[in-house]
């Protein structure tokens, strides 16, 4: 409730700007409000083309805005912006807003980038040079040498035979098809999605080594699909092929039944050995490329929706697969939230942070002190040998980096690392201490970025002013209206007695609808309901089943005269009407007349109405305390129609 109301007040927030040299639209006591200020908030909040500058629109919104400014004036007069509660709440909102700015700067472009890249699949080859080379050879120099040889004319396929990735060396370095977020290393993803088919990259460094990439092919991304399977296992270690022959015989028998038009789900029950899918009629979850065995995926993608395959085998099983459904390509807006959630756990997110930090490095000319950082890291490694990990300040504290005039020391980083030491789990091949130091450095740089936002972003200042006013007014209304209305039992009772007509229970009835599959069923069902109109929903479903309606549907809705758009005079049962391929029967019954409600029945509605009246009276008092003067000539000059 508090968040909802606060957001309403935020919508009425404004940026306090100088009125010098600007048209004054109105004043509240000694506070002057400019035309420009009012137009800013009028345009901001009257979206969907409602800011039409008609006299009616301007005057209506002006009254809301005047009332808002009256409350701000009173809140400031009461010193609500100086209380500890206010400062704590405002600080929390500032922290959230700054985090949102950082996330927007880092994340928004990444999410859109991954959506765009996700529209294409890429087929990649690589020549891999591991960081760990025999005899301590320089991996970077070796990668450069390989690349120079390719540029000089040596065939990529020949050089691929020298790759440290022995699984792909014999396949000309080919890794296979990938969608963007399936590529293990963000550096490789960045490289291949910037290349053209046939192009070869300079060595790309990752945490495990160097990769000389070739983009072999690009295609429109294969969609996600849903499929059902019939599966028979066999043992690949059975040298006598007995297990495979038995599985083959069973899958052939299943295929023969399908050819006789036995339902696929029935054949699943009779033959499939995959228990997890068998209990779901053979249906698998939605999947895309690189989810299952390559042969399996190729077989499914070769089918059309609704078609099933001939038997085929993988390394461990025989299959018959039926392609059920193809997922449509969804617009960015609908997939952005789920894509955002997925990316936070992928390497692409950290890579994007690294790139953002690099931009700040160039912008601010950040100075790093590698020797001090190395000593700091060595000390952390020693501390980590003892459990629990406890960081102790060192004096004097060495400077690790310098952002402008601000020095960031090892003790500042150490305190940050202490707070997250046991919550961080580095990925495979990543040194924990190195990662903690890197993250702590990034965190300090991002804190400097937040300070820059506070100082230089006009939008941030505007939003913080909206938060400020919203918090103050919420606290003001809480004490002057909401708590008063809830606590004033006598006043609430008096208000109810004076407005009992406003809280009447409307005339209402129950509207029940149900479907039959054919005219005969509909006629029989109509007669049953006409004979016993007060039967329960469960009785109704039971009768429908007895008439042969396999999946009976009964929809019940409470309606009043306004929602029904008709007078609820008497109960009725409408004769069946054909709706598409089915027959609809509608019944109106259980009509309840309009009646007076006791206070306890409608207390919530009465409290809300009483609060509204108290607020209106309170605002009238504020208008007397802080006289409001509207500059009619300025208002008239704003009217466009």
Plain-language structure description:
The chain is an alpha+beta fold. 50% of the residues lie in helices and 17% in strands. The strands form five sheets. Strands 13, 14, 15, 16 and 17 form a five-stranded antiparallel sheet that branches. It has a four-stranded antiparallel sheet with strand order 4-3-6-5. Helix 4 (84-117) packs across helix 14 (347-364), helix 9 (242-259) runs antiparallel to helix 10 (264-271) and helix 18 crosses helix 23. It is flat.
Highlighted features:
disordered N terminus, flat, 4-stranded antiparallel sheet, alpha+beta, 641 residues, 50% helix, 24 helices, 5-stranded antiparallel sheet
Question: What is the element layout, followed by pairings?
Answer:
Blueprint: H1 2-11, E1 24-28, E2 31-34, H2 35-45, H3 55-77, H4 84-117, E3 120-130, H5 139-152, H6 156-160, H7 166-169, E4 174-178, H8 186-192, E5 204-206, E6 209-220, E7 225-233, H9 242-259, H10 264-271, H11 275-278, H12 294-301, E8 312-313, E9 317-326, H13 332-343, H14 347-364, E10 367-368, H15 370-383, E11 399-403, E12 406-409, H16 410-420, H17 432-456, H18 458-487, H19 489-498, E13 508-516, H20 519-531, H21 537-546, E14 554-560, H22 561-564, E15 572-573, E16 577-579, E17 582-592, H23 603-625, E18 628-630, H24 632-638
Antiparallel strand pairs: 1-2, 1-18, 3-4, 3-6, 5-6, 7-9, 8-9, 10-11, 11-12, 13-14, 13-17, 15-17, 16-17
Helix pairs in contact: 1-18, 3-18, 4-13, 4-14, 4-17, 4-18, 9-10, 14-17, 16-17, 18-23
């Amino acid at each position: 409730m508090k968040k909802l109301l606060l957001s309403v007040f935020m919508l009425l927030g404004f940026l306090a700007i100088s009125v010098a040299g600007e048209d004054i639209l109105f004043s509240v006591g000694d506070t002057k409000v400019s035309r420009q200020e009012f137009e800013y908030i009028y345009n901001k909040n009257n979206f969907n083309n409602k800011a039409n500058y008609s006299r009616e629109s301007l005057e209506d919104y002006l009254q809301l805005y005047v009332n808002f400014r009256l409350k701000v004036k009173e809140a400031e007069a009461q010193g609500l912006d100086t209380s500890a509660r206010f400062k704590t709440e405002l600080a929390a909102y500032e922290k959230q807003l700054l985090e949102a700015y950082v996330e927007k700067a880092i994340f928004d472009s990444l999410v859109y980038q991954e959506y765009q890249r996700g529209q294409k699949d890429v087929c990649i080859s690589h020549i891999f040079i591991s960081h760990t080379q025999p005899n301590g050879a320089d991996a970077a120099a070796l990668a450069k040498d390989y690349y120079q040889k390719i540029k000089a004319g040596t065939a990529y396929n020949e050089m691929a035979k020298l790759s440290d990735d022995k699984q792909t060396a014999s396949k000309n370095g080919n890794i296979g098809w990938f969608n963007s977020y399936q590529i293990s290393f963000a550096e490789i993803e960045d490289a291949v999605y910037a290349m053209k088919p046939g192009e070869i990259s300079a060595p790309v460094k990752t945490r495990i080594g160097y990769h000389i990439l070739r983009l072999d092919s690009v295609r429109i991304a294969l969609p996600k699909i849903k499929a059902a399977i019939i599966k028979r296992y066999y043992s690949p270690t059975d040298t006598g092929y007995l297990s495979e022959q038995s599985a083959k015989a069973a899958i052939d028998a299943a295929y023969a039944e399908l050819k006789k038009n036995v339902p696929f789900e029935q054949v699943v029950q009779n033959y499939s050995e995959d228990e997890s899918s068998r209990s779901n009629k053979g249906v698998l979850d939605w999947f895309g490329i690189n989810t299952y065995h390559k042969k399996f995926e190729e077989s499914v993608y070769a089918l059309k929706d609704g078609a099933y395959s001939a038997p085929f085998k993988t390394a461990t099983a025989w299959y018959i697969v039926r392609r059920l459904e193809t997922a449509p390509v969804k617009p960015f807006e609908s997939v952005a939230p789920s894509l955002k959630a997925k990316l936070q756990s992928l390497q692409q997110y950290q890579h994007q942070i690294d790139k953002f930090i690099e931009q700040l490095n160039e912008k601010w000319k950040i100075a790093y002190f590698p020797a001090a950082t190395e000593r700091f890291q060595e000390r952390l490694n020693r501390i980590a040998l003892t459990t629990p990990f406890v960081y102790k300040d060192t004096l004097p504290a060495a400077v690790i980096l310098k952002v402008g005039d601000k020095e960031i020391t090892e003790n500042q980083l150490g305190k940050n690392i202490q707070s997250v030491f046991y919550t961080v789990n580095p990925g495979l091949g990543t040194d924990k201490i190195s990662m903690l130091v890197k993250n702590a450095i990034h965190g300090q740089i991002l804190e400097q970025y937040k300070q820059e936002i506070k100082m230089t972003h006009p939008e941030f200042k505007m939003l913080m002013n909206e938060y400020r006013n919203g918090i103050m007014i919420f606290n003001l209304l809480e004490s002057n209206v909401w708590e008063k209305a809830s606590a004033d039992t006598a006043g609430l009772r008096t208000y109810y007695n004076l407005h009992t007509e406003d809280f009447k229970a409307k005339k209402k009835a129950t509207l029940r609808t149900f479907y039959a599959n054919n005219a005969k069923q509909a006629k029989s069902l109509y007669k049953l309901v006409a004979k016993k109109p007060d039967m329960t929903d469960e009785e109704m479903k039971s009768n429908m089943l007895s008439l042969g309606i396999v999946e009976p549907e009964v929809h019940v809705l409470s309606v009043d005269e306004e929602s029904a758009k008709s007078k609820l005079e008497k109960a009725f049962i409408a004769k069946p009407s054909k709706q598409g391929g089915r027959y609809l029967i509608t019944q109106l019954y259980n009509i309840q007349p309009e009646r007076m409600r006791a206070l306890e029945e409608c207390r919530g509605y009465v409290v809300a109405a009483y609060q509204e009246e108290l607020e209106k009276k309170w605002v009238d008092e504020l208008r007397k305390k802080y006289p409001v003067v509207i500059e009619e000539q300025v208002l008239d000059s704003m009217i466009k129609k």
